[in-house]
Write a structure and sequence with these properties.
Blueprint lengths: L6 H17 L28 E5 L6 H9 L5 E5 L10 H5 L16 E6 L17 H11 L2 E6 L6 H9 L4 E2 L5 H9 L3 E3 L4 H8 L5 E6 L21 E6 L8 H8 L5 E4 L1 H4 L9
Length: about 280
């Protein structure tokens, strides 16, 4: 495993390498670097480059072809560098055990609370067109419909206009104190009712959780029409509520931010078939 990116990216990479290792007799994962989860870094053997198969790219991989290379003795080791954010690779019960956060000192928000992840910080300037913050109207609608007290977790303490306006818009909400990524992850993971951002971080926390309801924005990386190479829509998971957004690419322009601060970004709750790009109807 060639780890890179943030904590959630490395978790996906480790999950994928674990899946591969289980399918290869005698396989094991080397060079994983996840100290947050007490996953020790195992150095590769001296002969690890012998018959090396390089598995690079972003999200799509031919697992059967990789396994066949080992079966036919065309490969003896793998160097994996990628993201592998596709549900078809993983079994939730199997991979959830890789990340034991029970010892992490993080709060548990029960049925009275709606825990909302905020992704802001490095994406506000439009650096990545498929990662965007969430419009305030979306939060307001879910808070009103749920009747629960909002708890905002994540990048809410940064010194930027989005965070300042968020606090002004929701003065009675709870804003979790600034914490480590691991603490934030476990706070999201332990929520009974969760709103994810357009973020692999909160998506993974929700998917690995025992939450009763998970509100997922179908936008950016989660919209199959925009990113068909990524598949993170758990369409058969009854915990999920899908909310389709029609916002186009995120640019971080002043006009786009103004729309996010107001109520000008259209969204609607849809059934799973519609979230997948089918012909399903909107639920509201």
């Amino acid at each position: 495993m060639q780890p890179f990116g943030g904590m959630a990216n490395k978790m996906f990479q480790y999950m994928f390498c674990h899946v591969l290792a289980k399918r290869i007799p005698g396989g094991y994962v080397c060079d994983a670097d996840l100290p947050e989860w007490s996953i020790a870094r195992v150095r590769p053997p001296l002969l690890w480059k012998y018959r090396l198969l390089r598995v690079d790219g972003y999200h799509r991989y031919d697992l059967d072809g990789i396994i066949a290379a080992f079966r036919d003795r065309r490969a003896r080791s793998i160097r994996f560098k990628g993201f592998a954010q596709r549900l078809g690779y993983y079994d939730r019960d199997e991979v959830s055990g890789l990340f034991d956060g029970r010892a992490v000192a993080a709060p548990t928000h029960g049925d009275d609370f709606l825990v909302i992840h905020v992704r802001a910080g490095d994406i506000l300037d439009g650096f990545h067109r498929n990662y965007c913050p969430m419009p305030f109207g979306f939060f307001e609608t879910l808070i009103k419909d749920s009747g629960r007290k909002p708890v905002f977790v994540g990048q809410t303490h940064d010194d930027n206009d989005y965070c300042r306006r968020l606090r002004q818009r929701f003065p009675d909400a709870v804003f979790a104190p600034k914490a480590s990524p691991l603490t934030d992850f476990e706070t999201l993971r332990r929520a009974s009712h969760l709103v994810t951002g357009v973020s692999s971080f909160s998506w993974l926390a929700g998917w690995l959780s025992s939450a009763r309801t998970i509100h997922l924005p179908v936008a950016g990386i989660f919209d199959r029409c925009i990113r068909p190479d990524i598949d993170l829509l758990p369409l058969d998971d009854p915990r999920y509520r899908f909310h389709q957004f029609d916002m186009g690419d995120w640019t971080g322009s002043s006009e786009q931010l103004a729309a996010f601060y107001g109520d000008a970004i259209p969204f609607r709750e849809v059934e799973p078939q519609a979230a997948a790009g089918g012909a399903g109807k909107a639920l509201r």
